[in-house]
Design goal:
Blueprint: H1 2-12, E1 32-36, H2 47-62, E2 65-69, H3 77-88, E3 92-96, H4 101-110, E4 115-119, E5 124-125, E6 128-129, E7 146-151, H5 153-167, E8 172-177, H6 182-198, E9 203-208, H7 215-227, E10 232-236, H8 238-250, E11 254-259, H9 262-265, E12 273-279, H10 281-293, E13 300-304, E14 311-313, H11 325-340
Parallel strand pairs: 1-2, 1-3, 3-4, 4-7, 5-6, 7-13, 8-9, 8-10, 10-11, 11-12
Antiparallel strand pairs: 12-14
Helix pairs in contact: 2-10, 3-4, 5-6, 5-11, 7-8
């Protein structure tokens, strides 16, 4: 303290700063954000690319260092996270997608000094932590340093249903869903209730397919629904859903994509794609980094929704001039209503 006061007096008197001889302080290490993307291309116009975009921009704004790792395959997930920690010593690690759930949990339990955030994957007793705990994100559950970045699938499903019902000419619409897990069920529930809000008598078809990577089955299921009169198909099933979108394209039905703007990720069906029920992962990643910088990134599940810009319908693209204004207005009205009363989706 004496040296500090002496230096301040000299500075106030415009004396050469060098006169304040004191040991050179150590340079404080910048905090670092590390992202481990899913196997595949970083520039996938999907979860990888937009997680990197949101996280890197927020890290730069916060003055953090930023680095990312791209595993070669799903068998490299855990090793990629471990290597990132060993070589880069990050303070926050973000992993991308539910396929990285197990690897993220295992590494997080071994590194309580690091905060982890995982995109689009949540942990529940018996699914990510022991069955006999009440909360995976507690000390007891072992994941008290993990934040799950989740999305209000029911809200964007609801908007997709509103648009589908308004655009249907047959009064019959369908969804081809993936594995019957909570996020997928929320998509379907929102979609069906959104459609019913426009037409209480609308006929709704849905089938859950127990595989996210079975486009052939998705195609067959959608083709069957189309043969029964469905003229709008919502593919909420990953690559299985892509098969459904392709069937819609081939058999003259309208298509609604999922998770990201599939106008870019599945160009083969562009001419049939009226919109996509999109999770804005860049917004979620950016918010996570900002809150980490502010010391407010708490463990547990945080949900990106319409109110915070975390979800929404993608642009109508080629269909913009073909979608009637009254349908667009109905979507806008539903969005405003959901922001004040999200319970109307009917999802649990």
């Amino acid at each position: 303290m004496k040296i500090l006061r002496f230096c301040l007096v000299l500075l106030a008197a415009s004396v050469v700063v060098a006169a304040c001889a004191s040991p050179t302080p150590e340079v404080e290490r910048k905090l670092k954000v590390g992202v481990v993307v899913d196997a595949g291309s970083e520039l996938d116009k999907s979860f990888n690319e937009f997680t990197l975009k949101g996280a890197s921009e927020a890290a730069q704004a916060a003055g953090f260092d930023f680095i990312y790792v791209s595993p070669q395959s799903s068998s490299d997930y855990e090793r990629s996270i471990v290597d990132l920690i060993a070589t880069e010593n990050p303070n926050l690690v973000i992993t991308v997608g539910f396929r990285m759930g197990d690897a993220t949990a295992r590494v997080a339990q071994k590194h309580p000094e690091i905060h982890f955030a995982i995109m689009d994957n949540a942990y529940y007793p018996g699914a990510g932590c022991a069955e006999n705990v009440t909360n995976c994100y507690s000390e007891e559950g072992g994941l008290s340093n993990v934040t799950s970045l989740m999305f209000a699938e029911d809200e964007i499903g609801y908007l997709a249903g509103v648009l589908a019902a308004c655009m249907s000419r047959s009064g019959k619409i369908a969804s081809v869903a993936g594995v019957e897990i909570p996020p997928v069920v929320r998509f379907v529930t929102g979609y069906q209730n959104g459609a019913r809000s426009i037409d209480p008598d609308i006929v709704l078809f849905n089938q859950y397919v127990p595989d996210f990577n079975d486009p052939a089955t998705g195609h067959v299921v959608a083709q069957d629904f189309i043969s029964q009169g469905a003229d709008v198909i919502f593919g909420a099933a990953g690559n299985t859903g892509n098969g459904a979108l392709l069937a819609a394209h081939e058999y003259g039905a309208k298509a609604i994509g999922v998770d990201v703007d599939q106008y870019y990720t599945y160009p083969d069906v562009r001419s049939s794609l009226i919109t996509s029920a999109s999770k804005n992962v860049d917004v979620a990643a950016s918010a996570a980094v900002r809150d980490f910088a502010a010391g407010k990134l708490a463990p547990g599940i945080r949900v990106a929704n319409l109110s915070n810009g975390g979800v929404g319908l993608a642009p109508y693209h080629d269909w913009d001039s073909r979608i009637p204004q009254d349908c667009k207005d109905l979507v806008v009205s539903a969005e405003e209503l959901l922001k004040t009363n999200p319970a109307i989706t009917g999802a649990k």
